[in-house]
Design a protein that fits this description.
The chain has 78 residues and is mostly helical. The chain has one domain (18-74). The protein is built from 5 helices and no strands. The longest helix is centred in the middle third of the chain and has 15 residues, at 31-45. The radius of gyration is 17 Å and the shape is extended.
């Protein structure tokens, strides 16, 4: 993995969804039905500083997006 994000976790990552079944939750859409609109929304937000768009994430006491590591990699002849 290059760089880090708030969602960077050690692999493998297991998500237990037993409570979903117990509560009878039914998603209102599928991944395929929502990913395009979600990506479009994220691109629209990119016109602004992410800290103003996501203030809770911005309040974390550490750097959440390791862009400098990504930039160093992109600057090399890999």
């Amino acid at each position: 993995m290059i760089g880090s994000t708030p969602w960077s976790v050690p692999a493998p990552f297991t998500l237990n969804t037993d409570a979903v079944a117990i509560l009878g939750y039914t998603p209102v859409t599928t991944y395929q039905g929502s990913v395009g609109k979600t990506c479009d929304w994220l691109v629209a937000q990119s016109r602004h500083d992410w800290r103003t768009q996501f203030p809770i994430l911005a309040s974390y006491p550490r750097e959440l997006f390791d862009y400098s590591t990504d930039d160093r990699l992109l600057a090399t002849d890999v």
